[in-house]
Amino acid sequence: QVQLVESGGGSVQAGGSLRLSCAASTSPSRCITWFRQAPGKGREGVAAIVPTNGRTEYAASVKGRFTISQDITKKTFFLQINNLKPDDTGMYYCAAGPVGYCPMSASRYSDWGLGTQVTVSS
Q1: pLDDT at 28 (0 to 100)
Q2: What is the secondary structure of 26-76 as a DSSP string?
Q3: Residue 60 backbone class (left: φ over 0; alpha: ψ -120 to 50; beta: rest)
Q4: Is 94 within 8 Å of 114 (Cβ atoms)?
Q5: What is the pLDDT of residue 75?
Q6: Could you tell me which of 93, 95, 96, 68 has the C-alpha nearest to residue 81?
Q7: CA-based end-to-end distance of the chain
Q8: Angle, CA of 64, 65 and 68, to the nearest 5°
Q9: Quick one: CA dihedral 95, 100, 102, 107, positive or negative?
Q10: CA 5 → CA 15, 64, 93, 113, distances in Å?
Q11: Please, which residues have CB within 8 angstroms of residue 66's CB and are 6 or more apart in sequence?
Q12: Rounded distance between C-alpha atoms, residue 115 and residue 5, angstroms
């Protein structure tokens, strides 16, 4: 089991940028995925990374604006979000999932952080 702590959320205007961080308690070999949950909706996987080889995956809805990265030495994972839109508003979570591949379904993930809130105003 790995403990995850997100940070970096905030309130920004549309067009702005945020960098979210996810600190892990141990160096995970499992996929790390960022999910977001808009008010009244389910959790949507937006970006994922396989820590052992750095391979990344993105949801089509965010490709080109979201970038996931990692600092393995600090056991920290990042989500850079550019050109923020009001539809990006929601709680952002990081989660640890399977080893070696990254499904975008929240049901495949067992370890979750508590989330960090992102609010984008128009």
Answers
A1: 80
A2: S---EEEEEEEE-TTS-EEEEEEE-TTT--EEE-TTTBTTEEEEEEGGGTE
A3: alpha
A4: no
A5: 94
A6: 68
A7: 39
A8: 95
A9: negative
A10: 26, 25, 9, 5
A11: 34, 46, 47, 58, 79, 80, 81, 82
A12: 7
Task: Judge whether 10 and 18 are in contact, CB under 8 Å.
Answer: yes
Backbone region of residue 57 per phi and psi (left: phi > 0; alpha: psi in -120 to 50; beta: other values):
beta
- Taking the C-alpha atoms of residue 84 and residue 110, their distance in angstroms, rounded to an integer, is 28
Whole-number pLDDT of residue 7: 98
- Per residue in 67-85, pLDDT tens? 999 998 999 999 999 999 9
Return d(Cα 52, Cα 70) in angstroms, integer. Answer: 10
Rounded Cα distance between 43 and 38, Å, is 8
Q: Which residues in the chain come in under a pLDDT of 70?
A: none
Name the 3-class secondary structure at 101: coil
